[in-house]
Every structure is written in C-alpha cells, then in structure tokens.
Amino acid sequence: MATTKRRSSPTKPPQQQQRSQPVPTTTTLKKQDPSSDPPILLAAEPTSKKWRNWWLRTITTFMMIGTFFTILASGHIWVILMVIAIQTIVYNEVVQIADIPAKERSVKWFKTMSWYYLVTTTYFLHGESIIYYFEQIVLVDAFLLPFAVHHRFISFVLYTIGFVFFVMNLRKGLYKQQFAQYGWTHMALLLIVFQSHFIVNNILEGLICWAGNRPEGTNGISILLSYDSSRFVLPTSLVICNDIFAYVCGFFWGRTQLIQLSPKKTVEGFVGAWICTLIFGFLWASLLMRWDYMICPVKDLSTSAWSSVSCDPKNPVFIAVPWTLPETWSWAIGYVFKQQINQVWIAPVQLHAIVMACFASLIAPFGGFFASGVKRAFNVKDFGTSIPGHGGMTDRMDCQFFMGLFSFMYYQSFIKVKRERTHMTTYNLSVGAILGTVINGLPVKDQLELLERFLTYFVNQGILDPSVMEKCGAGALTEAAKAVFEQ
C-alpha cells in the first residue's frame, strides 16, 4: 500500500521572517507620533490647568525680569558676563539634546569636542571685540600685546587642533553619525555663540563714547561708557514684552492656530502682541531717554545705576524735535478730539523703537518657531527644566539672539553711518585706532621718533616740563635696546 509522505514546509530563515512582518503604515505612524494629535490651544485648556500654568509662568517671569534689571543696574561688566553665561547655558541645552543619540551610536568625544569648540569660538569672537573696543589698553600691556597682535592666528591654530582631532577619531561605520554631530555643533555655534557675539557688541557700542563727543571734565584717554538704550536695553525689553503679550492674548482670546511647528501659538496672540509691543516700545523709549544712566557717558566699568551720572549736552537721538503732521492727520485729529494739532514732538529714538518693535513682533518670533522645529525633530517638549513653567533657558532666549543680530545690523546701517557723516573728523579717530596703527604699522625706531616728536610738541606748547626730554629721550633707552639700534 503506497503511502504518501507529507512534505513539511521549510522553515523560513530569520531574515525572511523579519521581512514577512507587516510594515508600519502611515496610519500606524501617526498613532505612534504624539505630535500628530490635534493641538489644544491655551484658551481651550481645562480651567484649573490653565490658571495653574498662568500663575507659575507669571511668578517666574517677574523673577526673571527682576533679575535682569538688577544686573542691568549693577554695572556694565555684569551685563556682559550675563550674556556670556546665558550663551553658555543655551549652548549646553542645545548640545545636550543631541548628546543622547550620540551615546546610543557610540560616538566618542562628541561632548568634549562640543565644549572645546565653544571655548575656541568664544575666545575668537569676544577677543575680537575686546581688541577692537579696548585697543588703547590692550596694545600698551606687555603681556596682552602678543595675544592682541596674533589673536586671529592663535584662534586659527586652536580651531585646527579641534579639526585634526575630529578627523583622527573618525571610525568606520560611524562616518555619517560623526559628521552629523560635527555639523550640529557648528550649527549651534553659528546660531548661539555667533549671534550672542553681536549682543555683546551692542553693549560695547552703547558703552563707548568717542573722545570727540565726551562731556566736559573727562579726558580723551579714559574709557567712557554708557548704555545706549536703543542698542541693548530697548531691543531686549521689546522681545520680553512681545513674549508676555503673545501669551496673554493667546490665553484669553486665542482661537486660530498660527503655525504647525508651534501648535499653541495663535493668530490672535501674534497680532495682539504686535499691537501691544508697538505701544510699549514707544512709551518705554520715552521713559528710557529721561534716565541719565541709560544715555550718559560714565568714566569706568564700576559705574552703576546708583552712581551719580549726568551729561550736558545729551546725544541728539534722545532729544525730541518738532514733526509737522500731514494735513489729513491734523484734520482727523481735530475732528476726533475737537482740538487742532499741527505738529508733535518726537525723539529719533522713539521712531527707532517703533521699527525695532515691528521686528521683535513680526520676525523675531520665527527664531522661536525654528527652536520648536528642533524640539520636534528630537521629540522633546522643552530644551530643559531650569525655568519652571517655561522650560529651559533656550525656550526663553530663542528670539533674543535673532533680535540682537538685527539690532547690531540696524545700528550699523542706519544710526552709526549717519553719525559718521555728521562727525566725520572725530568719529573715525580714537586713541585705540591711532595706537593700533602706530604699533602695528611702524618699526620700533619710528615709534621712538614719533614719541620724541610728541614730547617736543607738548614741551613747546607749555604742557610738559622741558626736563621730560632728558628723562624720556635717547638716554632713557635700556642697554639691550641700545645694542639693537647700534646694529
């Protein structure tokens, strides 16, 4: 009797078994992705949760504003240190969210190299600012002079060391991940450190008062410092104001989503914050220009808001001038208020405040939207937890960096150029600029000849005693210097 053998089905290899598993569809991916859920706007959140977050954010906001103005009043050096500290914290938060994937892929030295590049970039950018604004101090110091003269080459060597170290640590199978991390580090340097460098420049531009515009009783060699509110305090305050009113208007009236990257941002909050920031900017500039600490030169970095600071005359940008209104505006005002007004008094800084308020409300928020895109790319809610109710430092400073860059470019393009044309003979010359030209452009013999001629000039003008020629002339050279000149 014939028997038939049952053919057993061959066992599939592991690879074929994996291939036979169902592939996730778009529908299943949407279910797994929490970001695909419909957003809940602030106005639609449960009342208890909404008001709990409101009070938490309100308390921390007032704490941050109080800290900001305390540092602002403490003095100029503390403001610069505050900016550098914020830059470092934000950079750490941004690098931190990319450090977890680096550990999962066994990418070594990522965090170490990120911090190395931060130190190198900070040294280069802020070193450039210090040399530019404080030439008269740096170039006459025996220790600092070599660092100032060779600053860019030293920075290049430091960067090259990091570059060589990165290339030597490339590992087979990890090339793509390592280059991705390298690019991420440089993006963080560009968007954080590079832009914060311009914020520091805004402070220093506002701190430096050139000798041609110095007040009476000061000398041309001393460093004259002042906050120019149109360059640092005002732009920073405008962003803070816009953030606050965007939240408030969205909290009470937000119904229409503005952008998918940031689901809780609403059109009502965006427009309401713009209107409120315009009003705040005009009024805030009107108040700041009446505070001498914000607009007057002071003599040193130790000056604070509690110091006695005054100046006369003041910078013209803070002085109100009459503006003739168009006939249509005069008629409209007279019709509404039953009073004829043909001209108004407005200071130039108030008009600059309106322009900056528009940028702070309409363009700077896109820095926040960019940060929201980064958080969604890494599937994180916030950059950190250092500020209760707000997230991390990056969540609050994402717009400030963009605003700082705009303020610098706006000042250089529309304010500084105008001042250069008005004070051409005094603005382009400074002790530091002339000193840098002499030290870097003349040999030592010519420098000594220039010194001798300066001394002769001051003696002939009756400013110096003739005995200074004997003390500071050729007889004052050291033996080593005489041996060099005799060769």
From TrEMBL:
It catalyses: a 1,2-diacyl-sn-glycero-3-phosphate + CTP + H(+) = a CDP-1,2-diacyl-sn-glycerol + diphosphate. GO terms for molecular function: phosphatidate cytidylyltransferase activity. Keywords: Lipid biosynthesis, Lipid metabolism, Membrane, Nucleotidyltransferase, Phospholipid biosynthesis, Phospholipid metabolism, Transferase, Transmembrane, Transmembrane helix. The chain crosses the membrane at residues 54-71, 77-94, 115-133, 153-170, 182-200, 232-254, 266-285, 351-371. One of its GO terms (biological process) is CDP-diacylglycerol biosynthetic process. The gene is ABSGL_02726.1 scaffold 3684. It is a multi-pass membrane protein. GO terms for cellular component: endoplasmic reticulum membrane. Belongs to the CDS family. Its EC number is 2.7.7.41. It comes from Absidia glauca. Pathway: Lipid metabolism; Phospholipid metabolism; CDP-diacylglycerol biosynthesis; CDP-diacylglycerol from sn-glycerol 3-phosphate: step 3/3. This is Phosphatidate cytidylyltransferase. It is an enzyme of class 2 (transferase). It is found in: Membrane. Residues 14-28 have a biased composition (Low complexity). Pfam families: CTP_transf_1. InterPro entries: PC_trans (IPR000374), PC_Trfase_euk (IPR016720). Residues 1-42 are annotated as: Disordered.
